[in-house]
Write a structure and sequence with these properties.
48% helix, 9 helices, globular, single chain, Rossmann fold, binds NADPH dihydro-nicotinamide-adenine-dinucleotide phosphate
Length: 241
């Protein structure tokens, strides 16, 4: 069996595409989710990807969940921090709860998941940490102060930790997707999508989850061993950082 890969939020959207693509590439994949969409989780399991429920926002639950995955599959060698949520509001209407939920999941969740697997990666002298950030962490987005702050934080986390992991054979990279056709984006009003979102994207369409998954598969591979601390922008030409 191939190396063990754990994908947070691996049951839906971009995470589901990443889980599937890693499995097809020969990895032993586990997918985590928060328990909101049981049907999506069952679908992944039927496709041969074991699914584990816990919230990445809860550090103790991450420690416990990772130990369950490792007992079943072996040490986690590839970690894809993909789980994410939005709680959008203009700043003057944003509540402290909106802020805390997004920071806890999208930024602290990356700490909570990476911290428990890091010592093992250092000992084994191999690891891949792939953080799914966002174009909106690069450029900022009105209505998403919480989300943009968390996703920008993920990029800083990536750059700093890459320096710590480099001598131990661990790479840490970020992928910044633009607008990808998942539930998160399809929740945007159809008219707003057509009149305000698509015109900003030079290629004239939303990205496909599989297009992000292929970036993740490359970053997980041995071929990507010299790439660390990097940010791959996959946004249809919408923003150059
Ligand atoms: P979806 O909403 O389609 O799926 C989110 C996944 O994350 C689900 O599997 C969900 O599980 C899981 N999840 C949410 N909260 C938690 C939690 N606390 N603990 C564990 N799992 C959790 O999202 P997308 O596929 O659209 O987005 C995936 C990532 O890509 C996110 O980080 C997002 O910010 C980022 N991104 C997305 C873009 C897009 O255009 N779609 C653009 C740029 C970045 P459950 O089913 O239980 O809710």
């Amino acid at each position: 069996m191939g190396r063990v890969a754990l994908v947070t939020g691996g049951t839906r959207g971009i995470g589901a595409a990443i889980s599937t693509a890693l499995k097809e590439a020969g990895y032993a994949v586990a997918a985590n989710y928060a328990g909101n969409d049981e049907a999506a989780a069952r679908f992944r399991e039927e496709a041969g990807i074991p699914v584990y429920k816990w919230s990445v926002a809860d550090y103790d639950a991450c420690v416990d969940g990772i130990s369950r995955v490792e007992a079943d599959l072996g040490p986690v060698e590839i970690l894809v921090n993909n789980a994410g949520i939005t709680r959008d509001a203009m700043f003057h209407r944003m509540t402290r709860e909106n802020w805390d939920q997004v920071i806890s999941t999208n930024l602290s969740g990356v700490f909570n998941m990476t911290h428990p697997v890091w010592p093992g990666m250092r000992e084994r002298k191999f690891g891949r940490v792939i953080n799914i950030s966002s174009i909106n962490g690069q450029k900022g987005q009105a209505g998403q102060v919480n989300y943009s702050a968390a996703k920008a934080g993920d990029i800083g986390f990536t750059r700093a930790l890459a320096q710590e992991g480099a001598r131990a054979g661990i790479t840490v990279n970020a992928i910044c997707p633009g607008y990808i056709g998942t539930e998160m984006v399809r929740a945007i009003d159809e008219d707003v999508l057509k009149t305000r979102v698509l015109p900003q994207i030079p290629v004239g369409r939303l990205g496909e989850p599989e297009e992000i998954a292929r970036c993740a598969v490359f970053l997980a591979s041995d071929d990507a061993g010299f790439i660390t601390g990097s940010t791959i922008s996959a946004n249809g030409g919408q923003y150059f950082s």
